[in-house]
UniProtKB/TrEMBL annotation:
Pathway where this protein functions: Amino-acid biosynthesis; L-leucine biosynthesis; L-leucine from 3-methyl-2-oxobutanoate: step 3/4
Cofactor: Mn(2+); Mg(2+)
Family: Belongs to the isocitrate and isopropylmalate dehydrogenases family. LeuB type 1 subfamily.
Enzyme Commission no: 1.1.1.85
Role: Catalyzes the oxidation of 3-carboxy-2-hydroxy-4-methylpentanoate (3-isopropylmalate) to 3-carboxy-4-methyl-2-oxopentanoate. The product decarboxylates to 4-methyl-2 oxopentanoate.
Residue ranges constituting the Isopropylmalate dehydrogenase-like domain according to the UniProt record: 3-351
GO biological process, one term: L-leucine biosynthetic process
Protein name: 3-isopropylmalate dehydrogenase
One Pfam family named in its UniProt record: Iso_dh
Domain of life (superkingdom): Bacteria
Amino acid sequence: MSHILILPGDGIGPEIVQEAVRVLRAAEQRFGLDISLDEAPVGGAAYDLHGDPLPQSTLDKARAADAILFGSIGGPKWDTIERDKRPERGLLRLRSSLGLFANLRPAILFPQLADASSLKPEVVSGLDILIVRELTGGIYFGQPRGIREENGERVGFNTDVYSESEMRRIAKVAFELAGQRNNKVCSVDKANVLEVTELWKEVVTDAAKDYPNIELSHMYVDNAAMQLVRAPKQFDVIVTGNLFGDILSDEAAMLTGSIGMLPSASLDENRKGLYEPCHGSAPDIAGQGIANPLATIMSLAMLMRYSLERGDVADAIQAAVEQVLDQGLRTADIYTEGTRKVSTEEMGAAVAEALARG
Ligand code: NAD
């Protein structure tokens, strides 16, 4: 039996996770999966209940689970509470407590949505990039950090730090995944300015020696940001650190038209993972029943592929999503004239039905 922990979180989190669970139930039925589900509070919801965005009981359940399906966290309600108790800190702590160092963010343009991209269809059609972002190191975690008084004014500071072993293990993940795709890895750095990424470039180059079939290239982050909107199809796998990966993956998200279409996986050394949409809690549309649940549903597909090793189930979920898009169903964020606008629930139910039908 596989144990999956559901962490709905805040804002649209509970709405979209509910639809992913609906699809999970359909997958269980069709494939005879043996899954136990548990649920726990995280983020602002957990702060309201327990005064902590990652209560010990939630962390214990996360440690015990085989995989975690996560909605989203945060919202204006918690933006002004003490920094350590903010929802985002709960998620950072969860990622680092579980050692989830490899963040996989695919950016795939569905042919049905080519019009939704802000770029010309010929620039993005057929786009299939995988961004591999280091998730538990770098400037988001480095010490010292803070805001202090200096010469009568406040000074803010953070530290970008990576050990050689952290660099090597994320490079290996990128090379291995590229081997299952188009055998190309582009490592993104700022080696001309930052020593930490000078070392990054050196270590990634050395790690590549074990993967002779992989074509490795290097690119400065400013150029990568430009190339992603100029000629995104030149990339197969992009590997980079925490900060650059955060920004570039959101940029890649926009190439596909909607952030509501992008799943992600965060894996540890043993492929236990936390699966979540790339977007946040969208407080502006929470509670309206209009959020796009497809990123979360495709995160469930990634969970099946990487943590449960059920590539067949993952493929079937992806196919069900494509079928529903083919039928012209669209949530508001991907709606274009001539298609049918549906609610969060209608979209989830349609994917579950398509999956059940097979
Ligand atoms: P956001 O991703 O929540 O929203 C950005 C825009 O995209 C909004 O207009 C929103 O309505 C839209 N959007 C996002 N997801 C959508 C979906 N599934 N369907 C349709 N539209 C969608 O980013 P933000 O507004 O910068 O942040 C809101 C809150 O989310 C903040 O508190 C932030 O800290 C938090 N956040 C959480 C995560 C996470 O849980 N991993 C990630 C990013 C931001």
